[in-house]
């Protein structure tokens, strides 16, 4: 089967499709939760500690423990922690679920919903291992998934999985037109399962297969479609209702409605099979609050209209800046053993590759480095106003941060770079302290995403978390474009 891999956020189309999750802090009896999620006192640390709690049981045991743990991707739209506040569509959805359940329980019992951020490839494994009780992330019911989990009643029916390309692509009307072409999906998605089934049939018939390209599990639907919109990847598969929404956001997307790779899909919430009590109350709640209800539509409209989107790293102006600086990123990336595409992604995040930018704090140029930092003996560059010097100083300082603070046999090169990026933004001592706290709290101190970043959101706020997340997103965008050029010998941009 033709499958390859290339190296993150998503807005849920319905409030059910993006419920996020958190962990419960202490392993002992939690405090009584007499208020709703939106009013009760909130300690962000309580939300991340549940990652280390492995436990299984049905609703009656959850009531005794007074918490239900929900697994979902951690993203600015689904669920995130900003300092001491929780936000997102999923947060509001689960606030409603908590209120609904506590109304049923009456005054004697109160239960909390806690959230556990989880990458998509870990949603079902973590559920089965007892690190959460429900997973909510726009998951389509498939035979493979039904073998291992029980699903709630569908929150959405009649889902179709369709092809999405850029607008300059000729209309696609038949499945055969995908043969031999690259289609980008996550390995954890139902899209991947259905593409595999199609390829099995094509192979048995002796026909060319579809070239399945796997993208990083941190990439959410809007990330993938933004890359299609910019021409960085040729096509993706998406649920039609989500693709149609994003086609209204990104101006160069084309949704091919003429045929579906899969139709009649049902989206639901998975739980463990031995939790019939939990399934019963979830089904009851879903029946009253799913798509088409007043509450569901209200949340849908509120969040879709208020979403702020990450800017497109491949506008024509940005491509010109990238082209003008590329040689310097390559030169100093090689000199300091850094991935030059990651370095370029950082430059884009810092300044949008604007060499003339000066921050109120005095940071200068593309890499937004302070002259005092550049003059330090660890960097030793006196004038960071010239373009080349600026990129040189930024690269050398990043290398210093990695070597000084994040070189360890336990930290892989990608995470060393991510930690250094966070330190570039927030200071190395802060990040080192957070790594130590992560180890004390059952998180992995050697991994940024879904681990140390959670404590950074609590202690520093959203800025540093979003800073690293955006760099990684731009990096995967640049990397996918480089791969596309390498494989095809051509660029989707005339000026690239």
Write up what this structure looks like:
- The strands form five sheets. Strands 7, 9, 12, 13 and 14 form a five-stranded antiparallel β-sheet that branches.
- The chain folds into three domains: 178 residues, Periplasmic binding protein-like II (D-Maltodextrin-Binding Protein, domain 2), CATH 3.40.190; 111 residues, Periplasmic binding protein-like II (D-Maltodextrin-Binding Protein, domain 2, 3-Layer(aba) Sandwich), CATH 3.40.190; 173 residues, Orthogonal Bundle (Lysozyme).
- The longest helix has 27 residues.
- The N terminus and C terminus are likely disordered.
- A hairpin with a 2-residue loop joins strand 3 and strand 4.
- The chain has 496 residues and is of the alpha/beta class.
- The radius of gyration is 23 Å and the shape is globular.
- It is built from 18 helices and 15 strands.
């Amino acid at each position: 089967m033709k499958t390859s891999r290339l190296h993150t956020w998503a807005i849920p189309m319905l409030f059910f499709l993006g419920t996020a999750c958190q962990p419960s802090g202490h392993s002992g009896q939690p405090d009584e939760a007499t208020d709703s999620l939106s009013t009760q006192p909130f300690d962000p640390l309580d939300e991340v500690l549940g990652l280390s709690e492995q436990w299984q049981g049905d609703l009656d045991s959850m009531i005794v423990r007074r918490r239900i743990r929900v697994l979902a991707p951690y993203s600015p739209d689904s669920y995130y922690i900003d300092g001491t506040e929780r936000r997102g569509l999923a947060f509001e959805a689960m606030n409603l679920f908590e209120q609904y359940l506590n109304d049923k329980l009456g005054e004697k019992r109160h239960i909390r919903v806690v959230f556990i951020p989880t990458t998509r490839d870990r949603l079902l494994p973590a559920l089965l291992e007892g690190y959460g009780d429900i997973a909510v992330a726009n998951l389509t019911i498939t035979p493979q998934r039904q073998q291992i989990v029980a699903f709630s009643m569908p929150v959405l029916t009649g889902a179709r999985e369709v092809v999405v390309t850029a607008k300059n692509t000729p209309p696609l009307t038949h499945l055969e037109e995908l043969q031999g072409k690259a289609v980008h999906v996550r390995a954890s998605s139902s899209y991947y399962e259905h593409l595999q089934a199609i390829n099995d049939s094509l192979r048995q018939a002796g026909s060319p297969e579809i070239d399945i390209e796997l993208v990083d599990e941190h990439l959410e639907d809007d990330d993938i479609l933004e890359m299609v919109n910019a021409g960085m990847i040729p096509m993706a598969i998406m649920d039609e209702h989500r693709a149609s929404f994003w086609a209204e956001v990104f101006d160069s997307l084309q949704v091919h409605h003429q045929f579906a790779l899969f139709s009649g899909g049902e989206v639901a919430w998975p739980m463990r099979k031995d939790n019939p009590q939990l399934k019963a109350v979830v089904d009851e709640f879903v029946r009253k609050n799913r798509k088409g209800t007043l509450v569901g539509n209200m949340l849908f409209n509120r969040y879709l209209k208020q979403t702020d989107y990450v800017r497109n790293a491949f506008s024509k102006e940005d491509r010109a800046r990238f082209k003008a600086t590329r040689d310097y990123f390559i030169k100093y990336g090689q000199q300091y053993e850094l991935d030059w595409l990651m370095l370029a992604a950082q430059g884009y995040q810092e300044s949008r590759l604007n060499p003339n930018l000066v921050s109120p704090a005095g940071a200068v140029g593309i890499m937004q480095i302070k002259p005092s930092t550049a003059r330090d003996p660890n960097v030793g560059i006196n004038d960071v106003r010239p373009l080349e010097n600026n990129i040189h100083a930024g690269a050398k300082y990043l290398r210093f941060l990695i070597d000084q603070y994040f070189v360890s046999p336990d930290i892989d090169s990608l995470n060393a770079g991510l930690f250094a990026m966070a330190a570039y933004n927030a200071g190395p001592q802060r990040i080192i302290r957070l790594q130590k706290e992560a180890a004390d709290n059952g998180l992995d101190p050697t991994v940024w995403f879904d681990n140390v970043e959670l404590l950074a959101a609590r202690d520093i706020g959203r800025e540093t978390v979003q800073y690293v997340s955006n760099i990684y997103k731009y990096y995967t965008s640049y990397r996918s474009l480089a791969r596309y050029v390498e494989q095809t010998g051509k660029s989707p941009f005339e000026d690239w």
